[in-house]
Amino acid sequence: MGVGYTFQDIYDVLGSRDTSDDSLTTVTLTAAYSATNRKILPIGGMSKAVLDVSYTNGTGEANTGLTIKVEFSPDRTNFYRAINDTTTNSESVLTQRNFTFAAADTATNYAFSLPIDIYNKYIRISVIETGVSTNYGTVYIGATLSGAK
What we know:
By secondary structure, the chain is an all-beta fold. It contains no helices and 14 strands.
């Protein structure tokens, strides 16, 4: 039995979806985080996000990676990174968390979903592409936010 969320919001994070035929418009990736490859979404009252990602790496570019950075904010001004928690010798070690998808083939579309537990009032999602020589790839990211708004 699944969780019965009372509310769901669907957003285009990067790129857009044409609702008449579900075709996707993508954005070109870069090697640096910037205002053109990130978006802030309101998440107050929500508890889960699923990012639906359609990533195509560039022609002639194999072994690239799509890195997704997730940050949270109570005020839309100060953002705090999601973290990894590992335990070594009974000590929790916290590190900043990224989600990296490794692409092996050249000019190939990879479609996947990334579920994320969410909290706070805002989430900022940013992306970069790594391992690129000259031809950057493209990405579309949509988000479904679920909770009890």
